[in-house]
User: Which sequence fits this backbone?
């Protein structure tokens, strides 16, 4: 069953004046899915595509959008299916890693975007870079900020703060906090969106801001996306998601176009991936990578202006 969140809950949120735009995707198994997105700035400018993760939506990027538009960029921030103002699925089992990448790729095709600068945070990396891997000709550059690309690769040993790597032929080494995070997403009787945002940001968000994050998810039936996407993190080499991530790593290993890491200094859940991207992506072979100071997991909340400046300067010099 395909659900939506009543549009009346999306009232006047702080610093988010952007009109709602939608495209309809056709899933061969599920039918028509609505994807909401923000599209601001000059239409003749090359697009900056901002891709969010869990449990957020395009609201996460509101300050980054404003900064980049003020610098003359066209900025597009979509809501992944299951999040924000996009369609939601009643059954959490309908969400798969493959579908999330496919839906995102269809969204890019529907808008017929080219010369894209894709920015991925949290699950926005696996989804956004997965789309890049499937249609690299549409993309001009990429930015990774507090994101992951798990596949339980043995070569990740001692490289990640939250360990997730194969050991020998049949074992894996997993960070206890990562396992707790995945398991609790399924065991908790109610998924508290506000609490998740508070944990991931260093600054204290206002009640109005937290209400904006929670608005798309008024009940458990509409929280299946944020709940299920967590358990899709590949924890073994045999996980179907690991094969998708490996394919994305292979594509990034051939990526000679510009690639930037802009990770924060306070996010253990993703720490270590910035160095892996720098080593494995040919287009990341430069000295201009950025560390966002005084920020947690949600760098867009803690230091949006630092992040926007890093993206804009990266585009300008490449």
Assistant:
């Amino acid at each position: 069953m395909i659900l939506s969140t009543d549009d009346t809950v999306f009232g006047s949120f702080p610093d988010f004046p952007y009109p709602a735009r939608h495209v309809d995707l056709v899933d061969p198994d599920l039918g028509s899915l609505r994807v909401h997105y923000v599209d601001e700035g000059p239409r003749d400018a090359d697009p900056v595509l901002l891709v969010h993760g869990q449990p957020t939506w395009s609201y996460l990027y509101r300050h980054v959008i404003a900064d980049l538009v003020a610098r003359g960029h066209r900025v597009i921030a979509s809501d992944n299916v299951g999040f924000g103002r996009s369609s939601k699925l009643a059954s959490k089992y309908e969400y798969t890693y493959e579908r999330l990448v496919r839906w995102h790729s269809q969204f890019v095709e529907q808008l017929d975007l080219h010369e894209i600068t894709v920015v991925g945070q949290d699950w926005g990396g696996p989804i956004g870079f997965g789309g890049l891997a499937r249609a690299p000709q549409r993309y001009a550059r990429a930015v990774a900020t507090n994101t992951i690309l798990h596949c339980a690769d043995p070569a990740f040993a001692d490289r990640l703060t939250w360990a997730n790597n194969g050991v020998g032929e049949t074992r894996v080494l997993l960070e206890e906090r990562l396992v707790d995070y995945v398991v609790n997403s399924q065991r908790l009787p109610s998924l508290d969106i506000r609490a998740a945002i508070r944990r991931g940001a260093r600054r204290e968000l206002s009640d109005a801001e937290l209400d904006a994050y929670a608005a798309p998810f008024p009940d458990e039936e509409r929280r299946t996306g944020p709940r299920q996407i967590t358990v899709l993190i590949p924890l073994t080499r045999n996980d179907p998601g690991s094969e998708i991530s490996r394919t994305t790593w292979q594509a990034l290993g051939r990526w000679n176009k510009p690639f930037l890491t802009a990770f924060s200094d306070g996010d253990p859940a993703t720490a270590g991936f910035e160095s892996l991207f720098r080593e494995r992506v040919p287009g990341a072979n430069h000295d201009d990578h950025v560390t966002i100071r005084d920020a947690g997991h949600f760098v867009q909340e803690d230091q949006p202006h630092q992040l926007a400046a890093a993206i804009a300067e990266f585009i300008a010099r490449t």
Remarks:
- The domain at 2-317 is CATH 3.40.50.1820 (Rossmann fold).
- The first helix runs from residue 62 to 70.
- The first strand starts at residue 2 and ends at 3.
